[in-house]
Amino acid sequence: MKSSKVVLIGVGAVGSTTAYTLLLRQRMDELVLIDANMDKAIGDALDMNHGMPFLGRTKVWAGSYVDCKDADIIIITAGSAQKPGESRVDLLKRNIGIYESILSEVLKYNQDGILLIATNPVDVMSYFSWKKSGWPVERVIGSGTLLDSARFRYLIGQHLNIDPRSVHANILGEHGDSEVPLWSRAHIAGTKLELDEKVKDFIFVNTREAAYQIINTKGATYYAIALALDRICAAILNNEGAVLTISTLLTDYHGISDVYLGVPSIVDRNGVREVLKTEVTTEEKELLQQSANKMKDLIQSVL
Question: Residue 118 in 3-state DSSP?
Fold first, then answer.
């Protein structure tokens, strides 16, 4: 049986937390950490290896791009933080530059894996990675609105005093301010949610603003996104056929084409097997199209 291998590029807060989450859940046989700061990658690998007597036989090491060879999944969390006074477009241009150099190196050693993108704005970075790599679209995946949907489900469950795992509700569109709550399809065991509009507004605003709340209190979000990335990796490595709201290329999705957005998709060993065209209301469709146009404008500004 072929051993499984994950490469993680960028071991900042999100990257190192993701690596540790994957390790705790024993997702792969080999885990490679790559970072511009080699000392940080070495330190993280050492720290994790010292826990092996409590875990198992996963091989963890700090590597270089040559170690991307034979990787099943290459997760990219690398990127710059926004500087004071810097516009979002300027930040995006800098991150595009970082990705250009990273992808050039990755592509020298791997042509068959799956790229899993987590750097923000994730929908634009995923679209760029697909264009740059030339890989089939099913093998270039963004974390999308999987985390947003988890926040949404958590808040609904909290309000109703129901386990969030039993809440079926999704956020579609941009991983960001123009995301769209799919209230029309939200349910618990097939029972439509009957919530007051003020409650709905409260839940959605707190879903959309969650990252800002966390950043204002502790500087960055990383635990929940690490769990979301772990969930995607599990779906791929275990060939699950799981339905996850990842970011992928849309083609005539409610009139939307040539842009990456978070939508429910079937994820298995080959990446995105199928995009599910969820039914939406007229209002939700318009909001999704607005979200797509926003992402297209960002793409045009940097590509």
Answer: coil
The answer to whether the CB of 58 falls within 8 A of the CB of 33 is no
Q: Are residues 166 and 279 in the same domain?
A: yes
* Among 107, 142, 177, residue at a domain's last position: 142
* Exposure letters 184-196 (e unless 16+ CB within 10 A, then b): ebbebeeeebebe
pTM of the model: 0.96
* pLDDT, tens digit (0-9, with 9 covering 90-100), for 28-61: 999 999 999 999 999 999 999 999 999 988 999 9
Task: Tell me which of 124, 142, 160 is where a domain ends.
Answer: 142
- C-alpha distances out from residue 262 to 35, 47, 144, Å: 27, 34, 4
Residue tagged active-site, from 168, 175, 187, 254: 175
Number of domains making up the chain? 2
SS3 of residue 227 by DSSP:
helix
Domain identity same for 263 and 296 = yes
Active site residue 50: no
101: tokens are 């150099």
In DSSP terms, which residues pair with 116 in a beta bridge?
A: 75, 141
- For residue 167, the SS3 value is coil
Residues 170 and 38 in one domain: no
Task: State pLDDT tens for residues 106-150.
Answer: 999 999 999 999 998 899 999 999 999 999 999 999 999 999 999
Catalogue the E-assigned strands of 36-173: 59-62, 73-76, 114-117, 140-142, 171-172
Domain that holds residue 151: 146-302
